[in-house]
Design goal:
Elements: H1 7-14, H2 16-24, E1 28-29, H3 30-37, H4 41-53, E2 58-62, E3 69-73, H5 77-88, H6 101-115, H7 132-148, H8 157-162, H9 166-172, H10 177-182, H11 205-220, H12 228-231, H13 234-239, H14 243-249, H15 254-261, H16 280-298, H17 310-315, H18 319-323, H19 333-340, H20 342-345
Antiparallel strand pairs: 1-3, 2-3
Helix pairs in contact: 2-5, 3-4, 6-7, 11-15, 16-19
Length: 352
């Protein structure tokens, strides 16, 4: 389960990367780890506790001759770092090149010569080989970090021109910045790169829409599925390159988009950021269903409806239905309950 971290909390978790790298080197006591990282033993113990909280297992073995413990990661380091990535909402690292270190250094020297004008173009046939992608996995991270200074999803054609990568993009990747960057960042999605022609229309469009929405919900947002209706907003779609999909195909409604990908799993009234959930005839049905669900969750029977207070509507984020002009409850809890439980009040006076 992902957890949304506060800024101060986030800074603490970022320090766990170095902590895990030290743990991965072999069994070491808490004292040894603290000394290597230049922290106190108490801080080291706190970080071990944070790792446990993050779902990362540590093999702790007590030394028989002293009241000390050796610590070692139970899982491979790469798996542990990916867990931290998910916890912090950080995208996975670029795929590392498999070329020998000496070869990688030589490639970067050639690239720096090109950037600084010592050579006018890439050496002939430099990318016309089986090692093209391995070379790009050396070059692209360096270009993004040192030259372009943008995240992969924010990188555009003009940025690649600045980084002297437009020619390899045009010749080997059909002029597509997305195809070029995906060699190094395979998790990158096409909609993150801006407008894509016919992405949401034509053959297979519905499947692509579902893929994009489930990607947003399950990989990018720090909310659980249970929290989703109360927290997902239009801004979540816009920030992850799906604003056009939401506005053009789902009436700017997070509920409609989520219901498309997860049909029948949620109710419209559950979505806090739903503008028209109390509108029209559907609004009356939504209100009835929402009130009944709230009362049932509170453990109140239809014969005890007087126990329902305005605080309950606020707690369940349903105070908007009390003030809705369409519903006409005029802030009256009794009118709202009459609408939801006409059998408990006799003839229904409000609603449809």
């Amino acid at each position: 389960m992902k957890r949304e971290l506060q800024v101060t909390d986030r800074k603490t978790y970022l320090k766990l990367y170095d902590f895990c790298i030290v743990l991965n080197r072999g069994s070491g006591t808490t004292d040894d780890i603290a000394q290597e990282l230049g922290i106190t033993i108490r801080t080291a113990e706190r970080r071990l506790a944070l790792l446990k909280q993050a779902g990362i297992e540590i093999d702790r073995t007590r030394e028989s001759w002293e009241n000390r413990y050796t610590n070692k990661l139970k899982e491979p380091l790469e798996t542990v770092l990916k867990k931290l990535d998910a916890l912090l909402g950080i995208r996975p690292h670029p795929v590392p090149s498999l070329l020998p270190e000496e070869k990688q250094e030589e490639i970067l020297r050639t690239y720096n010569d090109l950037l600084e004008g010592r050579i006018r173009h890439w050496p002939y046939h430099f990318f016309d080989c089986k090692e093209r992608e391995e070379k790009l996995r050396v070059i692209i991270p360096h270009a993004l970090e040192e030259i372009i200074k943008k995240a992969p999803a924010k990188t555009r054609r003009k940025d690649l021109e600045k980084a002297k990568l437009s020619r390899v993009r045009d010749i080997h990747y059909k002029g597509s910045a997305y195809r070029l960057l995906k060699t190094t960042y395979p998790w990158l999605q096409p909609w993150e790169m801006g407008k894509v022609r016919r992405m949401w229309s034509g053959k297979g469009a519905d499947e692509r829409k579902k893929q994009a929405i489930t990607w947003l919900v399950e990989e990018m947002l720090p909310y659980t599925l249970e929290e989703l209706p109360e927290r997902i907003s239009v801004d979540d779609f816009v920030r992850h390159g799906l604003g056009g999909l939401l506005c053009g195909h789902f009436n700017t409604s997070p509920y409609e988009a989520v219901n498309f990908a997860y049909p029948g799993r949620f109710k419209k009234w559950q979505f806090y950021y739903s503008r028209d959930k109390w509108s029209g005839k559907e609004g009356f049905e939504n209100a009835r269903e929402a009130i009944r669900a709230m009362v049932e969750d509170l453990g109140i029977s239809p014969s005890e409806l007087k126990k329902v207070k305005v605080e309950h509507f606020e707690k369940y984020r349903l105070s908007g239905l009390l003030t809705s002009k369409n519903l006409g409850f005029r802030r009256s809890i009794k009118r709202a309950l009459q609408h939801a439980y006409p059998e408990a009040y006799g003839k229904e006076k409000t609603g449809k």
